[in-house]
Write a sequence for this structure.
């Protein structure tokens, strides 16, 4: 069954979806099928930032509404959306498309750092925020990028803070998260 191929959808959830779809009208099912067919035609990767974009252009490269002096590096196009939901970042993005992972044979050549440096120069970027997953691959990629970008003049490089989640209590925090919170502590 195709519904089980979706992330987070197991056999029982797929079965519930399938029975729910049986209650839809033929027009609703045809409309869903058309939308699914059009996904690959209407959505592509932006040639500049590598985010997902529709036919009308990339909303994340809309420079009159964005501050091109601040660039946020993410690993995947899907990583942009939770950042956008915060409504706190108004800069531009750069999607790496991969993280360093020797086990998956993903090395520095997969990161497109040359394109990143070209964008930084073109937009006269002053600040780079590395917003990668807090995983072994994300940490390795962040360290590699820091090394590659620290030589750029007049560019400040930072990484998203990690540690304790908002409204959490210490007795529910795992050891790794607590250790990161201690190592990344800041003055009040």
């Amino acid at each position: 069954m195709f519904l089980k191929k979706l992330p987070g959808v197991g056999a029982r959830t797929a079965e519930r979806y399938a029975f729910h779809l049986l209650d839809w009208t033929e027009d609703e099912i045809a409309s869903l099928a058309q939308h699914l067919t059009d996904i690959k035609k209407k959505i592509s990767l932006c040639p500049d930032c590598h985010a997902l974009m529709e036919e009308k252009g990339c909303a994340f490269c809309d420079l009159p509404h964005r501050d091109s002096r601040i660039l946020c590096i993410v690993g995947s196009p899907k990583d942009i959306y939770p950042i956008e939901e915060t409504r706190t970042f108004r800069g531009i993005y750069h999607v790496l498309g991969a993280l360093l992972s020797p086990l998956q044979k993903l090395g520095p050549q997969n990161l497109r750092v040359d394109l990143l440096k070209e964008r930084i120069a073109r937009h006269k970027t002053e600040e780079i925020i590395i917003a990668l997953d807090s995983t072994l691959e994300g940490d390795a990629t962040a360290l590699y990028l820091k090394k590659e970008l620290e030589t750029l003049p007049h560019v400040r490089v930072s990484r998203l803070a990690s540690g304790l989640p908002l409204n959490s209590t210490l007795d529910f925090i795992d050891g790794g998260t607590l250790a990161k919170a201690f190592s990344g502590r800041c003055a009040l």
Summary: The mean pLDDT is 90. The helical segments are 11-22, 26-42, 80-86, 113-122, 136-149, 175-183. The chain is about 35% helix and 15% strand. Residues 26-42 form the longest helix (17 residues).
